[in-house]
């Protein structure tokens, strides 16, 4: 769990905590002497404080930080150890752990929008990408999208204008009933598919493969679009996209 660059763990003993901060999803404890303790809790990591008159259960602890007034205990639930503790010396070493994510509350709307649409990702994947945004985990992103009434798998790279154009053009296809679209962050999708489009037709006027050709040639779809007919061969995939995707028609 411990990753130390140059300084030894014993070197932090007796040093005063100068500051506590955050770098992305990591907690940074700055110590006297230009030393930094950096904790990454991952999903199951926890920090618990015990007053000096209470003894923590050290057997289950990954680390215990002892202070004059109490103990800070670093634990992780489960058997898999994903949490990490780094001991670094100097600001330059600390910056090597910075993934470069944008701090949302410190940015303006234009900067946030540019970063959100800079890569071809879904909203959930973009918000939780450390290189894009700092400090946003799965629970925080889920709660934010729920409050905004946005689907997790809504494509970031298709604007409302793009979606409106697709909706209008779909209306010209005779025999087409409903259409859904999402990006490939859906389990079991084909590796090279960026967008997945599921469509439903009125009756079986054409064979499935003929509809695939009709759909792909009718509109200027995003690159690497994968088509699935509702009720066709890929039923499980179609149902998944219908559940989480954006309905165009």
Q: Let me know the average pLDDT.
A: 79
Query: Can you write the helix and strand succession as a string?
Result: EEEEEEEEHHHHHEEHEHE
**Overall structural domain count:** 3
Distance, first to last CA:
50 Å
CATH topology group of the largest domain: N-terminal domain of MutM-like DNA repair proteins
β-sheet strand percentage: 25-35%
Q: How does CATH name the architecture of the largest domain?
A: Alpha-Beta Barrel
The level-1 CATH class of the largest domain: Alpha Beta
Strand order of the largest sheet: 1-8-4-3-2
Poorly predicted ranges: none
Overview in brief:
This protein is α+β, with helices and mostly antiparallel strands and 249 residues long. Helix content is 24%, strand content 28%.
Structure description:
- With 249 residues, the protein is an alpha+beta fold.
- The protein folds into three domains: 2-95, N-terminal domain of MutM-like DNA repair proteins, CATH 3.20.190.10; 104-147, no CATH class; 160-247, Beta Polymerase, domain 2 (2-Layer Sandwich), CATH 3.30.460.
- It is 24% helix and 28% strand.
- It contains seven helices and twelve strands.
- It has helices at residues 91-95, 109-116, 123-127, 138-147, 160-170, 208-218, 235-244; strands at 2-4, 17-23, 26-31, 35-40, 45-51, 61-66, 70-76, 84-89, 176-183, 195-201, 225-229, 246-247.
- Strands 1-8-4-3-2 form a five-stranded mixed sheet.
- The longest helix has 11 residues, at 160-170.
- The chain is elongated.
- The relative contact order is 0.11.
- The model has no long low-confidence stretch (mean pLDDT 79).
